[in-house]
Inverse folding.
């Protein structure tokens, strides 16, 4: 009941305000974040300290402030996203190299888009159906709050995207035509022993292996995309083809490549990644070397 009141009486009406007004609210929110409402401050500071061990305390403090500045804008832009029109979204996002997708469209293969929680991923999710030349799907896990999950899914789907539960992703590939599927792969995996372990931001990190598994199981082209913040409320989108022949790649190469590309994106605009996420909450398995060998053996037995 309270969620419905908040949505219909506060959040959704706010979304109809012009962005320039909403950004004034973002300014206030930023001040709250760095003073009396330090949202997950210990998590943010700890993640940044471990990811940038060579930065001075002063430089890390600047990065933390920059993150909260971005988080405030991201929160406000997500509210605006609830009522954004197609034309408004298009005016604020520029695809730098659409020819990458045009070439894949000619080949008639389904495409798996992979990225992370970097810059304004919500705007890309909402826009995917009219930014890419394929029927569009997004894979994710439902929110714990049923009301918010329903409302956010409705708004994400309003331009043609279909959101599919991660447990049911195989139904996407039962289409008789090429599709595009979006995965954000930088969440902390639920099971450390079913993860692909690698170095990421100077730390041993478990990575979701779903991108590589799906690409091999369904013979998908894989495209990494990054969003760069041009200025407040304006982003550029760049696509990079990782492979259109996943079955010829050695085990782990595809996963290593898309994770390292995300790492490069973060290094270029470090304030714009979701540092408040508890990314490194899984312990490294004591028998990691043996686990890696077993995982590779199982993968190659199934796909090679």
């Amino acid at each position: 009941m309270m969620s419905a009141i908040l949505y219909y009486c506060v959040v959704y009406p706010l979304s109809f305000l012009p962005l320039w007004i909403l950004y004034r609210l973002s300014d206030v929110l930023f001040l709250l974040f760095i003073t009396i409402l330090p949202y997950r401050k210990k998590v943010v500071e700890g993640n940044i300290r471990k990811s940038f061990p060579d930065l001075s305390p002063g430089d890390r403090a600047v990065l933390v402030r920059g993150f909260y500045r971005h988080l405030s804008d991201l929160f406000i832009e997500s509210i605006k996203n609830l009522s954004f029109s197609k034309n408004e979204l298009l005016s604020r996002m520029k695809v730098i190299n659409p020819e990458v997708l045009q070439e894949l469209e000619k080949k008639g293969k389904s495409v798996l888009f992979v990225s992370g929680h970097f810059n304004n991923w919500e705007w890309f999710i909402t826009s995917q159906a009219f930014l890419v030349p394929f029927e569009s799907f997004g894979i994710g896990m439902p929110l714990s709050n049923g009301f918010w999950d329903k409302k956010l899914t409705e708004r994400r789907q309003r331009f043609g995207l279909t959101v599919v539960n991660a447990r049911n992703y195989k139904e996407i590939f039962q289409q008789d035509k090429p599709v595009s599927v979006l995965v954000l792969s930088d969440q902390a995996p639920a099971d450390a022993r079913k993860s692909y372990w690698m170095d990421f931001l100077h730390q041993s990190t478990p990575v979701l292996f779903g991108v590589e598994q799906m690409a091999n199981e369904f013979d998908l082209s894989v495209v990494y995309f990054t969003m760069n913040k041009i200025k407040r409320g304006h982003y550029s989108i760049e696509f990079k083809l990782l492979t259109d022949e996943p079955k010829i790649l050695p085990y782990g190469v595809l996963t290593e490549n898309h994770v390292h590309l995300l790492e490069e994106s973060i290094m270029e605009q470090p304030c714009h990644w979701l540092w408040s996420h508890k990314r490194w909450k899984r312990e490294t398995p004591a028998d990691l070397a043996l686990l890696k060998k077993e995982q590779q053996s199982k993968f190659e037995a199934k796909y090679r």
Notes: Residues 89-280+289-303 form one domain. The chain has a mean pLDDT of 94. Strands lie at 93-95, 111-115, 135-140, 162-165, 179-184, 196-200, 203-207, 221-231, 234-243.
